[in-house]
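Input protein
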Amino acid sequence: MANFETALTKLLVKEGGATISDHKHDRGGITKWGISKLAYQDLDIASLTYEQAKEIYKRDYWDKFKLDTQDSQKVAEVLFEAGVHMGVKTALRIFNSLKSQLNKEETIIVQFKLALAWRYARICMRNSTQRVFLLGWLKRIFS
């Protein structure tokens, strides 16, 4: 079964850990532990603790995907991270559209990552202020 702690550790490295980010073009606003003000408007993001972030990730992402029942750690991690970055519904929709067409785990993961990259490219084509984030988004997907 997939392990939440392992996936969370990897995710938090990509999310910048406890570093507070407030980039002028980041639509999420102030962010810490990868938790944004836009997504959690009632939280004091600057004071967010590791334990609070962990609870949010478990409840709002890992458990929504039911990843404790996923046999593949790789699949769980890709879904978890995509859900955090673009929303559970969107990530699940993209993943399920590929899963119904493909049957090998590695092929599904590669195709899923390519679909995510295409989605980020479209975001940047629609809104040029988001181009500053594209390289980072692509690094997240393919690292």
Strands lie at 31-32, 35-36.
